[in-house]
From TrEMBL:
Residues 15-73 form the HTH tetR-type domain. This is TetR/AcrR family transcriptional regulator. Keywords: DNA-binding. SUPFAM superfamilies: Homeodomain-like. Pfam families: TetR_N (PF00440). It comes from the Bacteria. PANTHER family: HTH-TYPE TRANSCRIPTIONAL REGULATOR RUTR, HTH-TYPE TRANSCRIPTIONAL REPRESSOR BDCR.
C-alpha cells in the first residue's frame, strides 16, 4: 500500500518540477523568443528529459505557460467590494492590480499570438473580463463614462490595447507601464486623457491599489 504522505510529496514534487520548467521557460523565452526546448534546458540548468516529461513539444510548453498565466491572473483579481466604489477609480485600480501578472508574461505574448493565435492569448485576460464589463456598465449608468459603445466592446478594445502596451513595455518604452495601462483603459472607456490621468494619480496617491513591478 502506498503511504499517503509519500504519495502527496510525490505529487508536490511533480508540481514543483513543472513550475520550475515554466519559470525557466518564461525567463529564457523572454530573452530569446525562438529558443528551443534544448536552449531552455541548457539556460535553465534543467535536463531535457524533465522538460519533455511535462511538455512533449514546444507548443505544449507555450500552452503550459498560458495556463499558468491564466491561473495567476485569476488568483490576483479582487472582489468588486475590494475595489473603489466609483467605477472610474475601480477600472484604474483593477488595471494596476493585474499589471504584475501581465508584466511577468508580457514578453511571451508575441510568442503566444504566433503559436496559439490571438483568441488564445486574449483568453489570458478572460478572468478579469466579466468584472471589467461590470465596471464599465456601472460607469455608463452613472454617467461617468459615455455609452458610445457596448461595455463588452470597450473591454475587448482595452484587451487589444493592453497587448500593445505590454509589447511597448517590453521594449523599454514606458517608465510606468501599470499607470499607462490604467490611463488607456479609462480613455477607451470614454474619459478624456487629462481626466483619466487625474483619476489614476488619485488612485495611486490614496493607496486604493497595491503596486509592484
Amino acid at each position: 500500500m502506498t503511504d499517503n504522505s509519500t504519495a502527496g510529496a510525490g505529487r508536490r514534487g511533480t508540481t514543483s518540477k513543472r513550475q520550475i520548467v515554466i519559470d525557466a521557460a518564461i525567463d529564457v523565452l523572454g530573452r530569446q523568443p525562438d529558443a528551443s526546448i534544448a536552449d531552455i534546458a541548457a539556460a535553465g540548468g534543467i535536463a531535457r528529459r524533465t522538460i519533455y516529461g511535462h511538455f512533449p513539444t514546444r507548443r505544449d510548453l507555450i500552452v503550459g505557460i498560458a495556463e499558468s498565466a491564466a491561473a495567476d491572473l485569476t488568483a490576483i483579481i479582487p472582489a468588486r467590494a475590494a475595489l473603489p466604489a466609483e467605477p472610474d477609480r475601480a477600472v484604474a485600480a483593477l488595471a494596476m492590480i493585474t499589471w504584475p501578472v501581465a508584466g511577468r508574461y508580457r514578453a511571451l505574448l508575441g510568442i503566444g499570438r504566433q503559436e496559439l493565435g490571438d483568441d488564445r492569448v486574449l483568453e489570458l485576460l478572460a478572468p478579469g473580463r466579466e468584472l471589467s464589463i461590470d465596471l464599465v456598465e456601472a460607469g455608463q449608468r452613472s454617467g461617468l463614462f459615455p455609452a458610445y459603445l457596448p461595455p463588452s466592446t470597450i473591454v475587448t478594445l482595452t484587451d487589444g490595447a493592453t497587448l500593445g502596451l505590454l509589447a511597448d513595455a517590453d521594449a523599454g518604452n514606458s517608465a510606468d507601464p501599470a499607470r499607462d495601462v490604467a490611463v488607456v483603459a479609462l480613455v477607451i472607456a470614454g474619459l478624456g486623457a487629462t481626466d483619466a490621468i487625474a483619476v489614476v494619480d488619485a488612485v495611486t496617491a490614496d493607496g486604493s491599489t497595491p503596486r509592484s513591478g
